[in-house]
Amino acid sequence: MALPGKISLRHHDYIHILLGRGLSSEDEAFVIGFTMGNDLKTNKLHLFIYKLFTKFIYPYPYKFSTLDLIKFDLGFIYGRRIKMKNINEINFELYQDQSIGYLRNIFDINTDEIKFILTHELNLINI
Asked: Residue ranges per domain, the chain?
């Protein structure tokens, strides 16, 4: 069963690069949250199912901690916020000759904004 936001592993790695995220579990949670949030088909039931599985069903090292789930939610919010939607359905091979900066610009991704969001998440969540 595939949830909205599904993407190939290669394209998932491209999303990591576009978002300027690394390989930590928090970064992984942010990227998955972003991808699901950016897919307009994602609804509350999908979020519930994913969070249930990643918190209680998935084996280590795929389980998310409470902090990872906060990062997931921040990624989801950021994915919803940007103008370009359904990035998971884009054929990235069409852009292979373009710079990362160019792609971030056309996809409306701002890595400085992402760093700010992730650095100040507790303040943002308490608003």
From this structure: 9-125
Cα separation, 58 vs 18, whole angstroms = 26
Quick: pLDDT tens for 51-109: 999 999 999 888 999 999 999 999 999 999 999 999 999 999 999 999 999 999 999 99
The dihedral of CA 87, 74, 33, 27: what is its sign? Answer: positive
Q: Per residue in 32-48, pLDDT tens?
A: 999 999 999 999 999 99
Nearest CA to 36 out of 22, 53, 23 is that of 53
Q: Which of 122, 121, 100 is nearest to 111 (CA)?
A: 100
Query: Is the alpha carbon torsion for 61, 49, 5, 67 positive or negative?
Result: negative
